[in-house]
Amino acid sequence: MEPRTVADLDERTKREQGVDDQSPMRLRMEKFIREQQEAIVFALEQIDGKSFQRDTWTRPHGGGGLSCVLQEGNVFEKAGVNISVVYGTLPKGAVDKMRVNHRTISDEEHPLDFYALGLSLVLHPRNPMAPTVHLNYRYFETMRADGTPQAWWFGGGSDLTPSYLFDEDAVHFHRALKEACDKHDKAYYPRFKRWCDEYFNNKHRGEARGVGGIFFDDLDASESDAENTFAFVQDCLKSFLPSYLPIVERRKDMPFTEKEKEWQQVRRGRYVEFNLVHDRGTAFGLNVPGSRVESILMSLPLTAQWRYMYEPDPKSREQRLLDVLQNPKEWV
């Protein structure tokens, strides 16, 4: 029997032909992020000394994913490196809303098949001197009935969230991202750095979630062709391990006090606030029919605190962090 859905067609293509440079972009992006997930998990296991739990799952309507999660490790209190692949159908209302930012989306085909692919990573170290880090790279495509792309776009980025600010860590992290951006367009880093500062912001508190990085969304044919944008995303994702591993290696064994651990818990509470109140990815995931809630909420820390009217001491290291979060800096 011939495949009846795009998901069936893609699975048969991967099984019988494999994925190469002539394959649909969605399959090439999926192959790339699966390779990167494996490399990142391997590197993190070498640092932590404990293995990730690997959990493969499928969606009834096509797609699925691989969630790799480590809890109560030696270095990471909680770490997740997840891939999700979603095949679905957009009703007319959703199509009309998306056409605001993507004029290439058809206004004639309803409903419209779509494909969404993402690699999401969040690492919460035990040591309050070691920063939390977040990464997400994704690809979205609307498709005609035969599986050919109708419209497409990429999004992604990576950002650093310390509890205690070490300027050299922020500089190193931003420099790695800037080098990846500069290989493609000198305007990318300042543009996407500013976008990151504006997006990862707890507006209800008037402070950024962390010291930023880069963030971009909706990079489509109006920006560049698919090949160049894919190459840019590849370089950015490949820059993650060099951007973060030296930082966590420097900080994971530093001494800390009970009060410093308490401050980390309070800062994690602010992290949770952003993810549940402002993050579009969390909202999108929870509203997709058949979504896997455990994977979507993987980003939340194992422990956090909300203390009433908690304020750091004036001129303390904790206050300096808040000063930077309220007035984002240029690091490179």
Give short descriptive properties of this protein.
332 residues; alpha+beta
User: Mind telling me the C-alpha Rg?
Assistant: 20 Å
Order of helices and strands: HHEEEHEEEHHEEEHHHHHH
List low-pLDDT spans.
none
Overall strand count? 9
Strand order within the widest beta sheet: 1-2-3-4-5-6-9
Mean pLDDT score, rounded?
92
Strand content: 15-25%
**Largest beta-sheet characterization:** 7 strands, antiparallel
Walkthrough of the structure:
- Strands 1-2-3-4-5-6-9 form a seven-stranded antiparallel sheet. Strands 7-8 form a two-stranded antiparallel ribbon.
- The chain has eleven helices and nine strands.
- 41% of the residues lie in helices and 24% in strands.
- It is globular, with a radius of gyration of 20 Å.
- Helix 2 packs parallel to helix 6.
- With 332 residues, it is α+β, with helices and mostly antiparallel strands.
- Strand 2 and strand 3 form a beta hairpin.
